[in-house]
Amino acid sequence: MKKLLLLLLLTISHTSLVYADFDDGMAAYKKGDYEIAYKEWKPLAEQGDVDAQYRLGQMYLKGEGFPLDIEKAIYWWSKAAEQGVGWVQKRLDKLLEVQKVLAQAEQGDALSQYKLGLRYSDGEGIPQDFEQGAYWVNQAAEQGNADAQYQLWIWLYDGIGIAVDRAKGFCWLAKAAEQGHAEAQSDIRIFAKEDTGNCEEAPKELEPLAEEGGAEAQSTIGIFSNIEVGVAAYQNGDYETALKELEPLAIAGDPEAQNKVGWMNMLGNGVPQNSKKAFFWFHKSAEQGHPKSQFKLGFMYCSDNISPYDGVPEDDEKAIYWLTKAAEQGHASAIVWLRQLFDISSQIEWVIKSAKQGDYYSQKDLGVMYANGNGVPQDYEKAIYWYTKAAEQGDINLQRMLGRVYSDGVHVPIDNEKAIYWYTQAAEQGDADAQNALDEMLKTQQ
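Now predict its structure.
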């Protein structure tokens, strides 16, 4: 028995030391001291520690502390994947695909060049690099790949990762439309009047489309488009009408329309599901201060997503930036995510805004903060006020607690009527303690 106990203690001690070494490496990594991080993690990785193996692979893939080396990244991620770690295997598969696509792109395959450019731009399976992304997509576009030509139009129009050059972008749009690219032909009808005069390369065959497009753009983006009609149609599930009303407004710059069109693309409502287009519209809306779009954008960037969004790079720094923007406007879920995922303390003004908007979690948190004097002056009256708001939304524990507060006179005058009310609320939801307390109160009043 003593030998077994000693063995158990030694095992626990060894495990603690391993985690201590890993944590030391993580602390160094977060400070940008990659040399120390490498020294701490490499022995652990060689001993089979999955987390250390993954981190080493990530350092090689990002070129942190030494030149980027895909082969070594694959080596360490393969070691981790061999131990049956599914999420590492998924990332390894993406990296292996990148390696394959890179080889084909370097041999001049246009489709592979286009795919590689998107992977660089999105940071999918490889560190994000907009310059490399634009380079490879441009290579594919020069070879006549219509998808690449259309992609360059999008990037050049809004300056996503590259400098804005709408005249040049329209040239690529025209070339893609000439090849029958459906989305390009749709866009050229809307944007034709804006840019055709700047592109000498626009094929003559597209001139009728340009004329048609100018009229359509004027009539569609004009007063006949109605945000309220579009939103109502969206809420009623009439996505055809919603898209007809909202897409022109989104293109014209309306942030609410951009948010709704983003959701339609995200969920595949009325259009094919496309997370990259959803990301595009959420980004446009978020930049104009739309809190729900800011939250969604932060959510999409977050590396803790179980299923990362296709074509959206994982970037916790950007996730925190956009979640903070939303939280500053009182977006309750953004506040919760910042606190739970990133351990970022909520600013009191964020919580108050969210609580006033009726968010249960913020109301409860605010009650705790005032009760304990955490970040605000201790104030039992305000604590009970916010506890009451949260209890009104059905929190059994708070309902029972308020019953005791009023029955015992905890920081308030005794009020049996309110005590009975709150005990009853909790008891009706099946709380046995509240029911017992209620029974005792009713007995004493008989």
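Residues 2-30 form the longest helix (29 residues).
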